[in-house]
Amino acid sequence: MSDETFLRIDCVSKRFGTVQAVDAADFAIRRGEFFSLLGPSGCGKTTLLRIIAGFDFPDTGEIYFEGVRVTDEPANRRPSNMVFQSYAIFPHLNVFDNIAYGLRRARLDKPTLRRHVEDALAMIKLEGFAARRADELSGGQRQRVALARALILKPKVLLLDEPLGALDRRLREAMQLELRALQKSLGITFVFVTHDQEEALSMSDRVAVMSAGSVLQVASPRVLYEAPNCREVADFIGQMNFFAGRIIARDGAVARVELGPLGQTSLAIDGVAGNDILVALRPEKIVLSAEAAATSVKGSVAAIAYLGERTHYSVAIAGLKEPVFVANQNSEKSPTRSFAAGDTVFLSWLPDALVVLPND
Amino acid sequence: MRRPGRRGRAGLLAYAISYLAFLYLPVLFLPLFSLNDSVFIAFPLSGFTTQWYAQMLADDAMLHALGNSLEVGTATALLSTVLGLLTAKALTQFRVPGGAALLVFTSLPLFIPDIVLGISLLILLNIANLPLSLLSVIAGHTLICVPFAITVLLSRLEGFDRSLEEASRDLGEDAWMSFWRVTFPLALPGIVSSLLLTFIVSFDEFLIAYFLAGNEATLPIYIWSQLRFPYKLPAVLALGAAILVASTLLVVFAEWLRSRGLESRKQFMVGA
Q1: pLDDT at B54 over 50
Q2: Dihedral (CA of A250, A251, A254, A257) sign
């Protein structure tokens, strides 16, 4: 069995009433990877996770675990376990019984069971909490118990439904690192649902970006950021400037492109003269300078936000409706301001900083 | 709103006391006269005796009727609580089409006069050519007890985090074991208080039992039949007093369980 098709989501669609919750999702998750489903709320990521878990069943399409079709199998017969958004800690059981819940069917003798649970408690750093009642746990502790309860069954896949959403910022950042380290040391495949793009980028090996039920792009965080495949992904991940352009000439593999007030540039893209294109440029790839250079574009600073390690500029350019958003790293120690609102500045960037998107 | 003045407060207190007196004083005559050494229910009291209780315990017909009532009450309580649990679970767990209408429909027996229900059930059994027995009483009582069971269990199951059962499924248990390991223990206070409440309703019920019991008598029917004989009245009073004490204890226990349930329910509300 190839690791490439460890968990296959094969053209899965699911409709609730008039809402197309998941629309022809089609991708594979690799063995041992940290995979995120990222998208705004209501994009279908939780529904897709529940279909993988076996709580919801697709209208069309199939789910395969290691090549075996499990589309119609209920959750209790799938090799996956889940950490719920609400954690779903059983309120009538203490921590020990919560963690041992899934081991009943293994019929272990008492000492073995105790050892397993104690190992799990050690893994989540909650030694000595075995007798605590569910309502005596903090949010972070409940989350750890939910994690231990799922992992003690040694699942092939751990599904996590926005597990960090209820935690405060500092705890969330600590848990991100911890989850990532845990996943690497256990080698278990994690499928992680989140609406927080920073969280998805920093934790994942690969991310599927979803919107309105569709999977837009499945790629590594770096590819998603540097080479988004459509406007929606470019817009959802980080900040992005968009410019309309047109191909004016073609010379072999290279097209000459007119970008309105930004001037002309050469890009290695398909298309013939006359085609409209959409070009995107990340704010931090733009360099601001007080002096004009050969290919720079003149603008004037409309607004400044100083953020410590970087400064954000909003630059108005004659002929563009929207100001261009620029983020500059404050790499030099300079207590005085470099630019002020109203200053004339010149924008420049490397030619390969431009991302060409399908124009739709 | 203005707070009542001193005089107003005294008036409210007097009102509350007379209300409670009107409600409970007549009931207190039962134990009082059941311990009075006279067949006549009248003042002045003539002395203390427990002979009526002894007479009551020696009455085989009465004990038989008591047995019948316990049997009917237990069967009714079990049956209506199981049906109520299934309904409450369906209404809280799934988006049942017409759920609200269904709830009104199942509560309807509460609002139909028992005498109407009793007569219609009697007619139905006659048409179906079914014999009257304790079984028909159980059926009639279940009809009026299910709404009570649903009400009690709904308040217990509402707000139940659905992911608890899903978590159980996810951890390898099937639907049946998930019910026993998660839903049942969490609903248990509600189940017990439903059992007690429906038992009491059935145990006290007279009209439907009167129509459907046939040759058998439940305790209320037996008491009714004894009222024709004045010399038997004190023993009936003793019986009434005993039932009063038992009922009160049961209701207090059920209410205590219910309120305890409401408290512990907070723990497994969504987002708790």
Answers
A1: yes
A2: negative
Q: Within chain A, which residue ranges are assigned CATH 2.40.50.140?
A: 241-357
- Closest by CA to A317, choosing from A264, A261, A244, is A261
CATH class of A3-236: alpha beta
What are the residue ranges of CATH 3.40.50.300 in chain A? 3-236
**Higher per-residue pLDDT: B178 or B97:** B178
Q: Which residues of A touch B173 (CB under 8 A)?
A: 76, 102, 104-105
Cβ burial, residue B14 (10 Å; 0-12/13-18/19+): exposed
CATH number at residue B210: 1.10.3720.10
Domain membership of residue B130 as a residue range: 64-263
ipTM for the predicted complex:
0.82
For the segment B87-112, the average pLDDT, to the nearest whole number, is: 81
Q: Considering only CA atoms, give the Rg of chain B.
A: 23
From A69, A42, A71, A70, select the one nearest A57 (Cα to Cα).
A71
Residue A225 near residue A280, CB atoms below 8 Å: no
Q: State how far the Cα of B161 lies from the Cα of B250, in Å rounded to an integer.
A: 30
Instruction: Over range B109-137, report the average pLDDT.
Output: 85
Closest CA to A322 of A307, A337, A302: A302
Q: What is the mean pLDDT of chain A?
A: 90
* DSSP 3-state of A195: coil
Residue B165 is assigned to a structural domain of this protein? yes
Whether the per-residue pLDDT at B271 is higher than 50: the answer is no
Other Cβ atoms closer than 10 A to B59: 18
Identify which of B163, B171, B267 has the shortest CB distance to residue A101. Answer: B171
CATH superfamily of A241-357: Nucleic acid-binding proteins (2.40.50.140)
Q: What is the pTM of this model?
A: 0.79
Residue of B160, B170, B174 to mutate, testing the A interface (most A Cβ within 10 Å of its Cβ): B170
The number of distinct structural domains making up chain B is 1
* B121 part of a folded domain: yes
What's the pLDDT at A329? Answer: 86
In a domain, B80, yes or no: yes
